[in-house]
Design brief:
Blueprint: H1 20-32, E1 39-42, H2 49-59, E2 67-71, H3 80-85, E3 86-87, E4 99-100, H4 102-105, E5 110-114, H5 121-133, E6 135-136, E7 145-146, E8 150-155, H6 159-164, H7 170-176, E9 179-182, H8 193-208, E10 213-214, H9 216-224, H10 230-244, E11 249-250, H11 252-255, H12 276-299, H13 303-310, H14 314-323, H15 329-332
Parallel strand pairs: 1-8, 1-9, 2-5, 5-8, 10-11
Antiparallel strand pairs: 3-4, 6-7
Helix pairs in contact: 5-7, 8-10, 12-13
Length: 340
């Protein structure tokens, strides 16, 4: 596999990719990091919403202060005010000592409200009030405090839809969504799959020792898969395959995926008509082979020139040529261009 190339936003972000889709995300994060406005991040499960929030924090002026993620789905409704704002001694039965809330603990830093769509309506009202002026009062306390924190919220669901069905407050939606960031699913940035796979394998090698790589067919299979669980699914599947693989090479058997794609989706149906996914994979393969053949003919087999024309990394282009069995030397001929 080609050497790892990552595009990261901040040393601790963990975001990896080189596709146009991920570059657009990184550009927005860089712009958003210059201010303190609330940010609303949405995307399917496993797309890296918390990683994006961390990237935002560690690029901002608040990078030296805490980053505090809150799983809203796990907050008991009756304890939300206490969890966020804390309490004084004697505020209620059992409150024997003062406890700082998450807002105080994150002082000067960033709070991520993950799965914010899971907040019950009364809790949404509490969060809205805090967002309006960033003032709060701990339970049992008479003094109003200022919470110097940046608010980032994340949701698996499109909150606009939740607003329409009245399960999410419209005013809170607009307060949170001053700046909005959508994380694309992995199936919409398949060019990043080899980079992500390499990244995860290197981490696994550091953890377990030993060097393991994907065989070409396994890599093709990863790129063809739809990844309903997105990057998290890819990471977990590679982790399992790394452990199960008896030798230095990981194949389709260890990935528990059939060659070229997931099993049922890519087989021909009984009446002889291919299912959509199978037809799509074959059409892409045909296009790639035709395009690469014409590209090699135009550049006389010069990989460097071809990569510039195609706007593809040189290693990625070489891997595609190998995948389709295209020998660039057949296109060089007499007087062919040198591959600088």
């Amino acid at each position: 596999m080609a050497a790892l190339k990552t595009v990261t936003a901040g040393a601790r972000s963990g975001l990896v990719g080189a596709s146009d889709a991920i570059r657009a995300v990184l550009a927005k994060l860089e712009a958003f990091s210059t201010c303190d406005a609330p940010v609303l991040i949405d995307g399917e499960t496993g797309t890296g919403k918390e990683l994006a929030a961390r990237a935002l924090h560690y690029q901002s002026r608040r990078r030296g202060e805490p980053f505090v993620p809150i799983n809203c789905a796990a907050l008991p409704e009756q304890l939300i005010v206490n969890e966020l704002f804390g309490h004084h001694r004697g505020a209620f039965t059992g409150a024997e000592v003062r406890q700082a809330g998450l807002v105080e603990q994150a002082g000067g830093g960033t709070i991520l409200f993950d799965e914010v769509d899971m907040l019950p309506l009364p809790a949404q009202a509490v969060l809205l009030r805090f967002l309006q002026d960033q003032e709060y009062r701990p339970l049992g306390g008479g003094v109003v405090k200022i919470g110097d924190v940046r608010i980032v919220a994340a949701s698996n669901a499109r909150l606009a839809t939740k607003v329409k069905d009245r399960s999410f407050r419209e005013d809170l939606f607009y307060r949170l969504g001053v700046l909005m960031l959508h994380l694309p699913p992995l199936r919409e940035r398949r060019d990043d799959v080899p980079l992500l796979a390499d990244h995860f394998l290197q981490r696994l090698q550091q953890r377990y020792g030993g060097a393991k790589r994907l065989d070409p067919q396994a890599l093709d299979t990863l790129e063809a898969h739809d990844w309903p669980g997105n990057v998290r699914e890819l990471e977990n599947r590679l982790h399992r395959a790394f452990v199960l693989s008896p030798g230095p090479e990981i194949g389709c058997a260890e990935l528990e995926l059939e060659p070229t794609a997931a099993p049922a989706r890519l087989r021909t149906v009984a009446n002889g008509c291919d299912v959509f996914a199978a037809a799509k994979v074959r059409a892409i393969a045909d296009f790639e082979h035709d395009y690469l053949s014409r590209l090699m003919a135009m550049t006389r087999g010069n990989i460097s020139a071809a990569s510039r024309v195609a706007h593809k990394e040189r290693r990625t282009l070489a891997r595609l040529l190998q995948k389709h069995g295209i020998n660039r030397r057949e296109y060089q001929g007499e007087g062919g261009m040198s591959d600088a």
